[in-house]
Amino acid sequence: MTLKIGIARETAPGERRVAVTPETCKKLVAAGAQVCIERGSGAGAHFPDRTYEEAGATLVDATEAAIADADAVLCVQPPPATAIAAMKTGAALVGTLQPQADAARGEAIVQRGVVAFPLERLPRTTRAQAMDVLSSQAGMAGYKAVLIAASLAPRFFPMLTTAAGTIRPSKVLVIGAGVAGLQAIATARRLGAQVEGFDVRPETREQIQSLGGRFLDLGVSAAGEGGYARQLTDEERAEQQRRLGEHLKNVDVIVCTAAVPGRPAPKIVSAAMVGGMKPGSVVVDLAAETGGNCELTRPGETDDHGGVVVAGPLNLASQGAQHASEMYARNVFNFMQLLLKDGAIGFDWEDELLSKTVWPERS
């Protein structure tokens, strides 16, 4: 019996990415799978239906037709509970699923007996790098965030020498030096700005400097386990806030990217700090989806606060849907390699990439 892989159209508002591109579709077909995809699934990322047909996919007209008898369903954002309920028992569901964020979704996964692999739970190991959707999508988000900041700022980013005199470069501060933050630093540098990077993990200093940024040292370290930051004490946070507030008075653009997995985004930029910034300054908060690093951020909104613009864009990776989809689909294909066993789906629970990613956790 032929292994069937199903892909339905994404239903989340504004989502333009797709979990399988014609490139990875061709690879899945070559691996012996029948790829069944709902028409229009790749349109938002500019992959026409005909390119999937040319890659060997079977196109269908409805979500249920794509997933009802699929052995594995691949997605970008989690499908609605009704779609999960239409999957067959024992099928694998692979994507950024966030099962604990929605009770109905989590219950549907359990009740239907679906084997869910939320890729945001993937261990951050060297072997998993080729499957790391959080990193690949964060890179696009960091890039887009700087372009948004440049469009909102009433200034040039680079230094310009003109007949009307010299224009000084903008001063850009990137808060958080994960994948999104480092991409933001690199992009702002390419646009010619003076760039600083701030992170409470001291080991990020060399990464920031390697991209041409200056490491902003506020004298507070929050080095934690696994490359993530630990929570600051009240005293440490107060000192960090005081020093940061003083520094922001001379910054033109802030790009916020700091996040702690599974928790609300840390509040780093207070309303008082924004109030102390120069009119015409811009804050772009990538952490808006989990509450924002800036106290004034409103998810999905762009607001003016006394001449300082605070933007909280959502799902920035989707704004670069074509390249974001290409990276995401390769991540998913690489993960699927762990499941494909002799032309069928198999689960090797001795493999930590499977056992630590699957939800609910297996006892």
Automatic annotation (TrEMBL):
Catalytic class of the enzyme: translocase
Matches recorded under PROSITE patterns: ALADH_PNT_2 (PS00837)
Entry keywords, A to Z: NAD, NADP, Nucleotide-binding, Translocase
Catalytic function, reaction form: NAD(+) + NADPH + H(+)(in) = NADH + NADP(+) + H(+)(out)
Start and end residues of each Alanine dehydrogenase/pyridine nucleotide transhydrogenase NAD(H)-binding domain: 150-312
EC number per UniProt: 7.1.1.1
Tagged with keyword Translocase: yes
Pfam hit, one: AlaDh_PNT_C
Superkingdom of the organism of origin: Bacteria
Classification via CDD domains: Rubrum_tdh
Location of the Alanine dehydrogenase/pyridine nucleotide transhydrogenase N-terminal domain: 6-141
Family: Belongs to the AlaDH/PNT family.
Function statement: The transhydrogenation between NADH and NADP is coupled to respiration and ATP hydrolysis and functions as a proton pump across the membrane.
Protein name, entry field: proton-translocating NAD(P)(+) transhydrogenase
Organism whose genome encodes this protein: Luteimonas salinilitoris
